[in-house]
Amino acid sequence: MSSEISQNKVRGHLHPVTQVIREITDSFIAMGFEVADGSEVESEHYNFDALNVPKDHPARDMQDTFWVKGVPQTVLRTHTSAVQVRYMESHKPPFKIIVPGKVYRYEATDATHETQFHQIEGLVVGEGISLAHLKHTLDTFFKSLYGKDVATRLRPSYFPFVEPGVEIDMSCMKCAGRGCSVCKQTGWIEVMGGGMVHPNVLRAGGVDPQKYQGFAFGAGVDRLVMIRYGIDDIRLLYSGDLRLVNQF
Amino acid sequence: MNVPISYRWLESHFDKKLPEPEEISGLFMKHLCEVEAMEKHGDDTIFDLKILPDRGHDLLAHLGIAREVSVLANIPLKETVKKESRFCGIGSRKSSGRDQLVESVPSLRVEVREQKLCPRYMGRVIEGVSVGESPAWLRAFLESVGQRSINNIVDITNFVMLELGQPMHAFDAAKLARGKDGAFEIFVRKAHTSERMITLDGKDIVLSSETLVIADSAQSLAIAGVKGGRDAGVDQQTTTIIFEAANFDAVNTRRTSERVGIRTDSSCRFEHNISPVLAEEAMQMATELVLEMCPEACVGAVVDVYPAPVAKREFGVSVAELNAILGTKLSGDAVEDIVKRLGFTYRRTGDAFSITPPAYRLDLLIKEDLAEEIGRVYGYENIIPTPISELSFKAESLKTYVYANIIRDVLVAQGFSEVYTYSFQKEGVFAVANPIAEDKGFLRKDLSAGVSDALLLNARNAPLLGLDAVKIFEIGKVFPRVGEEKLSCAFAVDVLNAGKKKDARTKEVLQSACDSLSAALGVSVPAPLQGNIVEIDLGALLEKLLKPIFPVTPFKAIETRYQKISIYPYMLRDIALWVPEGVSSDVVHNMIRKEAGELLAFSRLFDVFTKEFPDGKKTSYAFNLVFQSHKKTLSDEEVNGVMERVTKVLAMEGGWTVR
User: Fold this and answer.
1) Residue B92 has pLDDT above 60, yes or no
2) Using CB atoms, which residue from A58, A126, A130 is nearest to B254?
3) What single-letter DSSP state applies at residue B140?
4) Residues A40, B485: C-beta atoms closer than 8 Å
């Protein structure tokens, strides 16, 4: 039989979520970040309390968060931010970490919502760390992935574990900011949330907020994968279907 | 939470002309919140603003947004904004509500039994109102933001809420039970067990003992902060009303609203925890508006149950601290200018500020909060990106990250494709307390179950994918016991159409994968004795490995565009032909692809051999062709038609014979 029809040499394919996570994580490794991880089953303390989420916050409700049976006050982590305080407790500043991982939300599923998805979290804590550093770090990251002409924009936002809190946009890589279907004619793509680590979070991690400041950011990987490759249904990513995977 | 805001309504707060709606929208986006939509309605523009959760205190209202416009566009608010009618344009009303207090108006007694759930309750009786249609300006304002005009009294309460963010309620006093002395009585209490109330819109609600209600001595009149009851509703015959401007606890209002299944503009605002101070302003404004519309009305005294007034909050911050957070070089004067524009009370000593935020700004508590205020008004675009220079930190590599990727790369090289399956399954050991569906009650105890389902799914599509064997893997967390979480890796193969050789081929594939993994990791990964799935306890395996070094080359994700998967079935055909020796399979394949067109979803060469003929050596090529449409189920006739065209084109080449 001719070699041109041999099956054994056919390579497999890496899932697009893996590809994008690796690309992002490796970019931050190249910028001196350490990769950290955490568990998917997480205590209410690390997922909510330590992150300055109020006790009666609606995010803790059973309509938003999966709780487990048999272990009290334990959830399926709703964000990779749960790793922040765990890492602070076991490492002294300064540090720069990047945390990819799977997270869960109690959510009716449809083309844009899933009960499980992926996030990447970044955390930098040190003396004199400021919002200007966050802006530079992300600007460098976007440029490393999408080229020199990509611009970064911060907008006001709110998350209990950062203050100030910002939404982070990058100029649309498809149309270079002119406006197209990918960016819904705005010229910008919302990629992350972030901000300066709230002093209560630093305190919860045993870090003195008088001495240290930090920034954090987090991105939803699935959305980035979908925008980048034009995938129209998030559920396809978890269907185990090679008709999707083998395109990558 | 989103709130509709009218440009014309905003305009009524200013003497000066406002920038155009597009410019205002740009200011909001940069400095305040997302503008999710902007729609022209006649000569008005309605902004759909996505108010950030921590600003629900003050921005779910036109006045709050007007204050922001004033700060961001640097245009002063009207001096008279709170003092005089600016709605009818001519200020027809001569006296303020306070001047018109009338002794003869029956008195009101308010008893708040749940002070924690109701920090403030203001009530006022107004006699001699005539319920009727609202003036045109009021109807226009309400309709601009999607509110239906009901009658002047109800419209006033809605207007005040949309203007100030303070929900109000109006009761028909005549429908209330009165005390022995003829005074009206209002009780703020928890509902009795299985007490009922019919809402204004006719819903019969059974209340629980956790629900806070507004009641007279006989029955519940309203679910506090959520919805009024029908029995005390204002109607065309109403002549005496009781206005309520109260403050209800945010969490309790949310829980109540969830429990009774009613969400209103009122409950949404209380859920955001508003300042009790707003009630005064609201009562004043509502009274003035009633007198404007019913000049003959007689206004009773305000009853104000407010046992623990909120204290003013003051906190200190220095310019150096603000700059340290923002990474800016703002001067003391620049900070002062912004603080002034924000209308905050402050004292400045050199570069040290002591700030007293306005009562309605419940979100400002610490210096970081103020840094955000200064930063957003100054403009985040003006922050100059600055590299992190002086961190003495040496990153360590993480085993789970580096080795999982090595394993992925080895398996991909071995022909395995990566899948992600669901962590939730029908069966397992570690259960979810609130599963999203009946068949997703457990966290997966292993990867094998999900991977073997995926094998089945993909085997059905193997021809479309051009696979003789489905080879997949997954790396992920598994939950084999309650409270236990482990990292696992599973890979599996389904060898198709191999007949008797299936078992041997399966073994071969898995053995080869295990050998490659063993070689790459330097530890033995034993192949299974039977079955077609291998699952490895990756956590345990990694324990045996040394801390890895970082990968040298950063990974680059593939550049491609996803092609939508067709939901219609595919159809299979084969074609085989003789060509003179030396004609490459690519030439033949390209001709087939070109002629078959877009219905050909997949094709591949599956057989080649060469034979001696009287007129020379000839090569036989055989191809699998897979047809599929994105628009419909293909019929046999359609596919046969394509095959005929392909056959015809191939047969036209000299010396080519389709077999």
Assistant:
1) no
2) A58
3) H
4) yes
Q: What residues of A are in contact with residue B470 (Cβ under 8 Å)?
A: 242
Q: Residue A8 above 60 pLDDT? A: no
Q: Which pLDDT tens digit goes with each residue over B501-530? A: 999 999 999 999 999 999 999 999 988 888
Count of CB pairs separated by less than 8 Å, A with B? 298
Above 50 in pLDDT, residue B28? yes
Pairing of strands B315-318, B352-356: antiparallel
Distance in angstroms (rounded) separating the CA atoms of residues B60 and B77: 18
B472/A39 CB distance under 8 A? no
Cβ–Cβ under 8 Å, residues A155 and A169 = yes
- Crossing angle between the packed helical segments A131-146 and A16-30, to the nearest 10 degrees: 120
Q: Which residues pair with B319 in a beta bridge?
A: none
Assigned domain for A27 exists: yes
Cα B165 to Cα B159: distance, rounded to the nearest angstrom: 9
Return d(Cα B456, Cα B76) in angstroms, integer: 69
Residue of A nearest to B565 (CA): A243
Q: For residue A109, which residues of chain B lie inside 8 Å, CB to CB?
A: 436
B574 touches chain A (CB under 8 A): no
Q: How far is A187 from chain B (nearest CA, A)?
A: 13
- Which CATH entry fits the domain spanning B2-73: 3.40.50.2300, 3.30.565.10, 3.30.56.10, 1.10.3210.10? 3.30.56.10
Q: What is the mean pLDDT of residues B370-379?
A: 96
CB–CB of B557 and A132 under 8 A?
no
Rg (CA), chain A: 19
* CATH code for the domain defined by B315-357+364-379: 3.30.56.10
Q: Which residue of B has its CA nearest to A7?
A: B468
Nearest Cα neighbor of A248 from B605, B156, B412 is B412
Asked if A248 and A19 count as a contact pair (C-beta separation under 8 A), the reply is yes
Domain B571-658 is classified in which CATH homologous superfamily? Ferrodoxin-fold anticodon-binding domain (3.30.70.380)
- How many domains are contained in chain A? 1
Average pLDDT over all residues of chain A = 92
At B409, give phi and psi (nearest 5°): -65, -40
Is residue B210 pLDDT above 80, yes or no?
yes
| CATH code for position A48 | 3.30.930.10
Domain with CATH 3.30.56.10 in chain B: 2-73, 315-357+364-379
CB B133 within 8 A of CB B125: no
Q: Are A12 and B471 in contact (CB under 8 A)?
A: yes
pTM: 0.90
CA distance B25 to B19: 10
H or E element in which residue B397 lies: none
Domain that holds residue A85: 14-145+209-242
Cross-chain Cβ contact A243/B476 below 8 Å: no
d(CA B224, CA B266): 10
Asked if A71 reaches chain B (Cβ–Cβ under 8 Å), the answer is: yes
* Range B98-305 classified under CATH 3.50.40.10: yes
Q: Which residue in the block uniquely carries the two structure tokens 């893996």?
A: A18
Inter-chain contact A40–B423, Cβ cutoff 8 Å?
yes
| Domain assignment present for A140 | yes
Distance CA A76, CA A78 (A): 6
- B564 inside 8 A of chain A by CB: yes
Q: Are B390 and A96 in contact (CB under 8 A)?
A: no
Short-list B262, B118, B266, CA closest to B198: B262
Residue A13 touches chain B, beta carbons under 8 Å: yes
